[in-house]
Amino acid sequence: MDGLLRHLEALVAFDTRNPPRLIGTGGIFDYLRAHLPGFRIEVSDHGEGAVSLFAVRGNPGRVFNVHLDTVPSSEAWSADPHVLRVDGDRAIGLGACDIKGAAAGLLVAANATEGDAAFLFSSDEEANDPRCIAAFLAREHGFAEAIIAEPTRCEAVLAHRGISSVLLRFKGEAGHASGANALAANALHHAMRWGGHALDLVEAEANARFGGLTGLRFNIGKVEGGIKANVIAPSAELRFGFRPLPSHDLQQLHARFRGCAAPAALAHYEETFRGPSLPAGDTATAEERRLAARDLADGLGLPIGNAVDFWTEASLFSQAGLTAFVYGPGDIAQAHTADEWVALEQLQRYADAVTRILGT
Protein backbone atom coordinates (compact mmCIF):
# COMPACT_ATOMS: atom_id res chain seq x y z
CA MET A 1 0.00 0.00 0.00
CA ASP A 2 2.84 2.42 0.77
CA GLY A 3 4.21 1.94 -2.74
CA LEU A 4 0.79 2.35 -4.31
CA LEU A 5 0.17 5.61 -2.50
CA ARG A 6 3.63 6.98 -3.31
CA HIS A 7 3.02 6.37 -7.01
CA LEU A 8 -0.53 7.72 -6.86
CA GLU A 9 0.62 10.84 -5.02
CA ALA A 10 3.19 11.52 -7.73
CA LEU A 11 0.76 10.83 -10.59
CA VAL A 12 -1.98 13.05 -9.13
CA ALA A 13 0.53 15.89 -8.74
CA PHE A 14 0.98 16.07 -12.53
CA ASP A 15 -1.58 18.37 -14.16
CA THR A 16 -3.12 16.30 -16.96
CA ARG A 17 -6.51 18.02 -17.13
CA ASN A 18 -8.31 17.56 -20.43
CA PRO A 19 -9.29 20.12 -21.51
CA PRO A 20 -7.03 21.97 -21.94
CA ARG A 21 -4.82 18.87 -22.47
CA LEU A 22 -1.56 20.77 -22.20
CA ILE A 23 0.36 17.52 -21.91
CA GLY A 24 3.86 17.02 -23.23
CA THR A 25 6.16 14.05 -23.63
CA GLY A 26 7.95 14.78 -20.34
CA GLY A 27 6.37 15.24 -16.92
CA ILE A 28 4.19 12.28 -16.05
CA PHE A 29 5.74 10.22 -18.86
CA ASP A 30 9.23 10.79 -17.47
CA TYR A 31 7.93 9.50 -14.13
CA LEU A 32 6.49 6.35 -15.72
CA ARG A 33 9.69 5.72 -17.67
CA ALA A 34 11.77 6.02 -14.50
CA HIS A 35 9.64 3.46 -12.68
CA LEU A 36 9.48 0.82 -15.41
CA PRO A 37 13.04 -0.58 -15.38
CA GLY A 38 13.65 -3.43 -17.78
CA PHE A 39 10.89 -2.33 -20.18
CA ARG A 40 11.33 -1.27 -23.78
CA ILE A 41 9.62 2.13 -23.83
CA GLU A 42 8.26 4.17 -26.70
CA VAL A 43 6.75 7.63 -26.16
CA SER A 44 4.69 9.02 -29.06
CA ASP A 45 3.31 12.54 -29.54
CA HIS A 46 0.09 12.40 -31.57
CA GLY A 47 -0.45 16.18 -31.50
CA GLU A 48 -2.50 18.61 -29.41
CA GLY A 49 -1.54 17.08 -26.09
CA ALA A 50 -2.31 13.49 -27.07
CA VAL A 51 0.72 11.52 -25.90
CA SER A 52 1.12 7.79 -25.35
CA LEU A 53 3.71 5.62 -23.66
CA PHE A 54 4.00 2.00 -24.73
CA ALA A 55 6.06 -0.20 -22.40
CA VAL A 56 6.90 -3.84 -23.19
CA ARG A 57 8.82 -6.53 -21.32
CA GLY A 58 9.36 -9.92 -22.89
CA ASN A 59 6.87 -11.11 -25.49
CA PRO A 60 3.33 -10.68 -24.10
CA GLY A 61 0.08 -11.36 -25.96
CA ARG A 62 -2.04 -9.11 -23.75
CA VAL A 63 -1.88 -5.36 -23.21
CA PHE A 64 -3.09 -3.33 -20.23
CA ASN A 65 -4.32 0.16 -21.06
CA VAL A 66 -4.92 3.12 -18.73
CA HIS A 67 -5.51 6.79 -19.56
CA LEU A 68 -3.68 9.47 -17.59
CA ASP A 69 -5.76 12.53 -18.49
CA THR A 70 -8.44 13.79 -16.12
CA VAL A 71 -11.47 16.01 -16.38
CA PRO A 72 -11.00 19.66 -15.32
CA SER A 73 -11.21 20.44 -11.62
CA SER A 74 -13.85 22.82 -10.25
CA GLU A 75 -14.21 25.38 -7.47
CA ALA A 76 -16.20 22.76 -5.53
CA TRP A 77 -13.00 20.94 -4.47
CA SER A 78 -12.37 21.38 -0.75
CA ALA A 79 -8.55 21.33 -1.18
CA ASP A 80 -5.90 21.37 -3.91
CA PRO A 81 -7.01 18.65 -6.38
CA HIS A 82 -3.39 17.89 -7.31
CA VAL A 83 -2.34 17.05 -3.76
CA LEU A 84 -3.28 13.49 -2.79
CA ARG A 85 -5.00 13.18 0.60
CA VAL A 86 -5.63 9.96 2.48
CA ASP A 87 -8.69 10.16 4.69
CA GLY A 88 -9.47 6.92 6.49
CA ASP A 89 -10.02 4.29 3.81
CA ARG A 90 -10.02 6.74 0.88
CA ALA A 91 -7.39 8.34 -1.35
CA ILE A 92 -8.65 11.70 -2.59
CA GLY A 93 -7.26 13.56 -5.58
CA LEU A 94 -8.03 14.56 -9.16
CA GLY A 95 -7.82 11.36 -11.23
CA ALA A 96 -7.37 9.09 -8.21
CA CYS A 97 -10.50 7.20 -9.21
CA ASP A 98 -10.54 7.92 -12.95
CA ILE A 99 -8.03 6.39 -13.38
CA LYS A 100 -4.56 7.15 -12.10
CA GLY A 101 -5.12 4.62 -9.32
CA ALA A 102 -4.86 1.90 -11.94
CA ALA A 103 -1.65 3.42 -13.32
CA ALA A 104 -0.16 3.27 -9.83
CA GLY A 105 -1.26 -0.36 -9.59
CA LEU A 106 0.45 -1.22 -12.88
CA LEU A 107 3.72 0.30 -11.66
CA VAL A 108 3.58 -1.73 -8.45
CA ALA A 109 2.75 -4.93 -10.34
CA ALA A 110 5.50 -4.32 -12.90
CA ASN A 111 8.13 -3.98 -10.19
CA ALA A 112 6.87 -7.02 -8.25
CA THR A 113 7.15 -9.37 -11.25
CA GLU A 114 9.63 -10.31 -13.95
CA GLY A 115 7.49 -11.95 -16.64
CA ASP A 116 6.06 -10.73 -19.93
CA ALA A 117 4.07 -7.49 -19.66
CA ALA A 118 2.77 -4.71 -21.88
CA PHE A 119 1.28 -1.38 -20.80
CA LEU A 120 -0.20 1.37 -22.94
CA PHE A 121 -0.62 4.72 -21.17
CA SER A 122 -2.62 7.39 -23.05
CA SER A 123 -3.67 10.99 -22.47
CA ASP A 124 -6.70 11.77 -24.63
CA GLU A 125 -9.61 9.66 -23.36
CA GLU A 126 -11.51 12.50 -21.66
CA ALA A 127 -11.77 14.58 -24.86
CA ASN A 128 -13.57 12.08 -27.10
CA ASP A 129 -10.51 12.28 -29.34
CA PRO A 130 -8.90 8.82 -29.17
CA ARG A 131 -5.74 9.51 -31.15
CA CYS A 132 -3.51 7.44 -28.89
CA ILE A 133 -5.58 4.26 -29.14
CA ALA A 134 -6.23 4.73 -32.86
CA ALA A 135 -2.50 5.07 -33.57
CA PHE A 136 -1.67 2.04 -31.45
CA LEU A 137 -4.28 -0.15 -33.13
CA ALA A 138 -3.16 0.99 -36.59
CA ARG A 139 0.33 -0.37 -36.01
CA GLU A 140 1.51 -3.99 -36.08
CA HIS A 141 1.03 -4.58 -32.37
CA GLY A 142 0.61 -8.37 -32.22
CA PHE A 143 -1.80 -8.44 -29.26
CA ALA A 144 -4.90 -10.63 -29.07
CA GLU A 145 -6.23 -9.44 -25.69
CA ALA A 146 -6.65 -6.09 -23.94
CA ILE A 147 -7.67 -5.10 -20.42
CA ILE A 148 -8.73 -1.47 -20.22
CA ALA A 149 -8.71 0.31 -16.87
CA GLU A 150 -11.78 2.31 -15.85
CA PRO A 151 -13.57 2.41 -12.48
CA THR A 152 -15.47 -0.91 -12.34
CA ARG A 153 -15.04 -1.81 -8.63
CA CYS A 154 -12.50 -4.46 -9.67
CA GLU A 155 -15.04 -6.41 -11.69
CA ALA A 156 -14.61 -7.37 -15.34
CA VAL A 157 -17.16 -5.47 -17.42
CA LEU A 158 -17.86 -7.26 -20.69
CA ALA A 159 -20.41 -4.95 -22.31
CA HIS A 160 -21.29 -1.28 -22.46
CA ARG A 161 -23.15 1.13 -24.69
CA GLY A 162 -21.71 2.95 -27.65
CA ILE A 163 -21.92 6.69 -28.03
CA SER A 164 -22.76 9.05 -30.88
CA SER A 165 -22.90 12.85 -30.88
CA VAL A 166 -24.74 14.73 -33.64
CA LEU A 167 -25.03 18.31 -34.89
CA LEU A 168 -28.27 19.30 -36.62
CA ARG A 169 -29.03 22.56 -38.42
CA PHE A 170 -32.53 23.62 -39.42
CA LYS A 171 -33.48 26.27 -41.95
CA GLY A 172 -36.40 28.68 -41.88
CA GLU A 173 -37.49 31.92 -43.47
CA ALA A 174 -37.14 35.18 -41.55
CA GLY A 175 -40.22 37.35 -41.22
CA HIS A 176 -42.57 39.04 -38.84
CA ALA A 177 -43.93 36.72 -36.17
CA SER A 178 -47.49 37.91 -36.82
CA GLY A 179 -47.46 36.29 -40.24
CA ALA A 180 -49.62 33.27 -40.98
CA ASN A 181 -46.53 31.39 -42.12
CA ALA A 182 -44.77 31.67 -38.73
CA LEU A 183 -45.65 28.12 -37.66
CA ALA A 184 -44.31 26.52 -40.82
CA ALA A 185 -41.38 28.84 -41.59
CA ASN A 186 -39.71 29.01 -38.16
CA ALA A 187 -36.47 27.00 -37.92
CA LEU A 188 -36.84 26.66 -34.15
CA HIS A 189 -40.29 25.15 -34.67
CA HIS A 190 -38.67 22.60 -37.00
CA ALA A 191 -36.15 21.77 -34.28
CA MET A 192 -38.88 21.30 -31.69
CA ARG A 193 -40.94 19.09 -34.00
CA TRP A 194 -37.83 17.02 -34.64
CA GLY A 195 -37.32 16.71 -30.89
CA GLY A 196 -40.84 15.37 -30.35
CA HIS A 197 -40.46 12.75 -33.07
CA ALA A 198 -36.99 11.79 -31.79
CA LEU A 199 -38.31 11.27 -28.26
CA ASP A 200 -41.05 9.03 -29.65
CA LEU A 201 -38.39 7.02 -31.50
CA VAL A 202 -36.36 6.54 -28.33
CA GLU A 203 -39.37 5.51 -26.27
CA ALA A 204 -40.20 2.87 -28.90
CA GLU A 205 -36.79 1.28 -28.22
CA ALA A 206 -37.52 0.80 -24.50
CA ASN A 207 -37.67 -3.00 -24.77
CA ALA A 208 -34.44 -3.47 -26.74
CA ARG A 209 -31.95 -5.53 -24.69
CA PHE A 210 -28.37 -6.80 -24.71
CA GLY A 211 -26.30 -8.35 -21.95
CA GLY A 212 -28.20 -6.72 -19.09
CA LEU A 213 -28.61 -3.33 -20.79
CA THR A 214 -32.07 -2.10 -21.78
CA GLY A 215 -33.33 0.60 -24.13
CA LEU A 216 -31.67 3.48 -25.94
CA ARG A 217 -30.12 6.36 -23.99
CA PHE A 218 -30.76 9.80 -25.55
CA ASN A 219 -30.18 13.44 -24.70
CA ILE A 220 -30.81 16.77 -26.43
CA GLY A 221 -27.96 18.81 -25.02
CA LYS A 222 -28.22 22.18 -26.72
CA VAL A 223 -30.67 24.16 -28.89
CA GLU A 224 -29.98 27.66 -30.12
CA GLY A 225 -31.15 29.98 -32.87
CA GLY A 226 -33.52 32.77 -33.71
CA ILE A 227 -33.29 36.52 -33.19
CA LYS A 228 -36.13 37.68 -30.89
CA ALA A 229 -39.71 36.83 -29.99
CA ASN A 230 -41.34 38.77 -32.81
CA VAL A 231 -39.03 37.53 -35.59
CA ILE A 232 -39.48 34.18 -37.32
CA ALA A 233 -36.24 32.25 -36.70
CA PRO A 234 -34.37 31.81 -40.00
CA SER A 235 -32.01 29.17 -38.59
CA ALA A 236 -31.53 26.91 -35.60
CA GLU A 237 -28.86 24.52 -34.37
CA LEU A 238 -29.36 21.47 -32.17
CA ARG A 239 -26.88 19.06 -30.62
CA PHE A 240 -27.92 15.67 -29.34
CA GLY A 241 -26.35 12.41 -28.34
CA PHE A 242 -27.47 8.82 -27.99
CA ARG A 243 -25.98 5.66 -26.53
CA PRO A 244 -26.92 2.49 -28.39
CA LEU A 245 -26.78 -1.12 -27.28
CA PRO A 246 -24.26 -3.45 -28.94
CA SER A 247 -27.25 -4.98 -30.73
CA HIS A 248 -28.39 -1.66 -32.26
CA ASP A 249 -27.58 -0.88 -35.89
CA LEU A 250 -25.90 2.53 -35.64
CA GLN A 251 -26.35 3.50 -39.29
CA GLN A 252 -30.02 2.59 -39.12
CA LEU A 253 -30.48 4.69 -35.99
CA HIS A 254 -28.90 7.69 -37.71
CA ALA A 255 -31.23 7.25 -40.66
CA ARG A 256 -34.21 7.13 -38.33
CA PHE A 257 -33.13 10.21 -36.38
CA ARG A 258 -32.52 12.08 -39.62
CA GLY A 259 -35.99 11.04 -40.76
CA CYS A 260 -37.59 12.70 -37.73
CA ALA A 261 -37.26 16.03 -39.57
CA ALA A 262 -39.06 17.13 -42.70
CA PRO A 263 -36.47 17.01 -45.51
CA ALA A 264 -37.13 20.60 -46.51
CA ALA A 265 -36.49 21.79 -42.95
CA LEU A 266 -33.18 20.00 -42.36
CA ALA A 267 -30.12 21.87 -43.59
CA HIS A 268 -27.37 19.74 -42.04
CA TYR A 269 -26.93 16.44 -40.20
CA GLU A 270 -23.43 15.58 -38.97
CA GLU A 271 -22.16 12.94 -36.59
CA THR A 272 -19.39 14.71 -34.64
CA PHE A 273 -18.18 11.76 -32.58
CA ARG A 274 -18.71 8.01 -32.58
CA GLY A 275 -17.59 5.39 -30.12
CA PRO A 276 -18.61 1.78 -30.78
CA SER A 277 -20.34 -0.41 -28.23
CA LEU A 278 -18.56 -3.12 -26.30
CA PRO A 279 -18.38 -5.71 -27.71
CA ALA A 280 -18.18 -4.20 -31.19
CA GLY A 281 -19.85 -5.83 -34.19
CA ASP A 282 -23.33 -6.85 -35.26
CA THR A 283 -25.69 -8.68 -32.89
CA ALA A 284 -24.29 -12.17 -33.53
CA THR A 285 -20.64 -11.09 -33.55
CA ALA A 286 -21.08 -8.97 -30.41
CA GLU A 287 -22.44 -11.91 -28.45
CA GLU A 288 -19.56 -14.14 -29.60
CA ARG A 289 -17.06 -11.52 -28.47
CA ARG A 290 -18.83 -11.04 -25.14
CA LEU A 291 -18.56 -14.76 -24.44
CA ALA A 292 -14.88 -14.73 -25.42
CA ALA A 293 -14.25 -11.86 -23.00
CA ARG A 294 -16.13 -13.74 -20.29
CA ASP A 295 -13.94 -16.80 -20.84
CA LEU A 296 -10.82 -14.63 -20.64
CA ALA A 297 -11.92 -12.98 -17.39
CA ASP A 298 -12.85 -16.36 -15.91
CA GLY A 299 -9.50 -17.77 -16.92
CA LEU A 300 -7.73 -14.89 -15.17
CA GLY A 301 -9.77 -15.44 -12.02
CA LEU A 302 -11.53 -12.06 -12.18
CA PRO A 303 -15.12 -11.57 -10.98
CA ILE A 304 -17.63 -10.67 -13.70
CA GLY A 305 -19.56 -7.43 -13.25
CA ASN A 306 -22.72 -6.08 -14.83
CA ALA A 307 -22.80 -4.27 -18.16
CA VAL A 308 -22.56 -0.48 -17.80
CA ASP A 309 -24.06 2.57 -19.49
CA PHE A 310 -20.86 4.63 -19.76
CA TRP A 311 -18.52 4.41 -22.75
CA THR A 312 -14.90 3.27 -22.66
CA GLU A 313 -12.07 2.83 -25.13
CA ALA A 314 -12.29 -0.94 -24.63
CA SER A 315 -14.75 -0.85 -27.52
CA LEU A 316 -12.01 0.43 -29.83
CA PHE A 317 -9.85 -2.60 -29.01
CA SER A 318 -12.87 -4.86 -29.57
CA GLN A 319 -13.61 -3.17 -32.89
CA ALA A 320 -10.01 -3.92 -33.93
CA GLY A 321 -10.55 -7.62 -33.23
CA LEU A 322 -8.99 -8.00 -29.78
CA THR A 323 -10.79 -9.77 -26.95
CA ALA A 324 -11.32 -6.87 -24.56
CA PHE A 325 -12.99 -6.03 -21.30
CA VAL A 326 -12.92 -3.22 -18.74
CA TYR A 327 -11.37 -3.76 -15.31
CA GLY A 328 -10.16 -1.24 -12.78
CA PRO A 329 -10.31 0.05 -9.21
CA GLY A 330 -12.88 2.55 -7.97
CA ASP A 331 -16.54 3.29 -8.58
CA ILE A 332 -17.78 5.35 -11.54
CA ALA A 333 -20.04 7.22 -9.06
CA GLN A 334 -16.90 8.95 -7.72
CA ALA A 335 -15.42 9.74 -11.15
CA HIS A 336 -15.64 13.36 -12.36
CA THR A 337 -16.82 14.58 -8.93
CA ALA A 338 -15.35 17.21 -6.61
CA ASP A 339 -13.08 15.54 -4.03
CA GLU A 340 -12.91 12.47 -6.27
CA TRP A 341 -11.74 9.42 -4.32
CA VAL A 342 -10.88 5.75 -4.60
CA ALA A 343 -11.06 3.20 -1.80
CA LEU A 344 -7.68 1.95 -0.60
CA GLU A 345 -9.05 -1.59 -0.62
CA GLN A 346 -9.85 -1.22 -4.33
CA LEU A 347 -6.33 0.00 -5.10
CA GLN A 348 -4.85 -2.97 -3.29
CA ARG A 349 -7.20 -5.46 -4.93
CA TYR A 350 -6.37 -4.17 -8.40
CA ALA A 351 -2.61 -4.19 -7.82
CA ASP A 352 -2.79 -7.69 -6.37
CA ALA A 353 -4.83 -8.98 -9.33
CA VAL A 354 -2.47 -7.51 -11.95
CA THR A 355 0.55 -8.80 -10.04
CA ARG A 356 -0.98 -12.27 -9.98
CA ILE A 357 -1.83 -12.14 -13.70
CA LEU A 358 1.68 -10.96 -14.68
CA GLY A 359 3.25 -13.58 -12.45
CA THR A 360 1.53 -16.56 -14.07
Describe the structure.
This protein is α+β, with helices and mostly antiparallel strands and 360 residues long. Helix content is 32%, strand content 23%. It is globular, with a radius of gyration of 23 Å.
Average pLDDT metric: 95
Radius of gyration: 23 Å
Strand content: 15-25%
What structural category arises from helix and sheet content?
alpha+beta
The largest sheet has its strands arranged as 1-2-6-3-7-14
- Morphology: globular
User: What is the quaternary state of this protein?
Assistant: single chain
Query: Which bin fits the share of residues in helices?
Result: 25-40%
- Euclidean distance between termini CA atoms: 22 Å
Largest beta-sheet characterization: 6 strands, mixed
DSSP, total strands: 15
Spell out the helices and strands N to C: HHEEEEEHEHEEHHEEEEHEHHEEH
Low-confidence stretches: none
Tally of separate helices: 10
Give a topology summary.
Blueprint: H1 2-13, H2 28-34, E1 40-45, E2 51-57, E3 62-67, E4 85-87, E5 90-92, H3 96-112, E6 117-122, H4 131-138, E7 145-148, E8 163-171, H5 182-185, H6 187-204, E9 209-210, E10 213-214, E11 217-225, E12 235-243, H7 250-258, E13 266-275, H8 283-299, H9 314-319, E14 323-326, E15 341-343, H10 344-359
Parallel strand pairs: 3-6, 3-7, 7-14
Antiparallel strand pairs: 1-2, 2-6, 4-5, 5-15, 8-12, 8-13, 9-10, 11-12
